[in-house]
Amino acid sequence: MNKxxxxxxxxxxxxxxxxxxxxKTFVLWREVVMAYASPAIMAGIGGxxxxxxxxxxxxxxxxxxxxxxxxxxxxxxxxxxGGHIRWIIGAPHLIVVGIFAFTGAMFGLFAAWAxxxxxxxxxxxxxxxxxxxxxxxxxLSGFIASTxxxxxxxxxxxxxxxxxxxx
Length: 167
Hints:
The longest helix has 33 residues, at 134-166. It is globular and about 90 Å long. Helix 2 (28-50) packs antiparallel against helix 3. By secondary structure, the protein is mainly alpha-helical. The termini are far apart. The chain is built from six helices and no strands.
C-alpha cells in the first residue's frame, strides 16, 4: 500500500512556544503602566459603583499616580541593584514579595506624612479635600505597586536564571 510519511506539524509549534516562554524580560515602562492601571481601574470601578466622586478622581490621581511613582522608583532600583543582592534572588518568592510590599506600604505612609506636613506649612488653612484621602491612598498604592513590580521582576529573574542553568 501507500506508506507515505507526513511531517509532524506540531514540532515547530512547540519549539516556538518554549523559546518564547523563556524570554520573559523586565521592561520598565510596561511595569509602571501596569502598576498605574491596575489600582486606578479597581478604585475607579469602586467609585462608579458607590457614586463617590472623590474616589473616582483619586483613582486617577493619588491612587494611580502614587502607584506609578513607587513602581518606577522600585523598578529602577531592582533593575540596577536588586539582582546583586543575594537574599533577594535566593529567598522564596512570596517572602521577597511580602517584604517589598510591606516596605512599599511604609514608604507610602511616610509619603503621606511628609505631604500632609508640607501642605500644613505651605497652606495653613488646609481646605483641600484630597489631603484626608492620602493617609489611605498612599500606603495602599505603595503596597499594590511594590507587590506587582516585585512579583513580575522576580518571575523575570527566576526565568532568566533557570534558562541560563539549563544550557
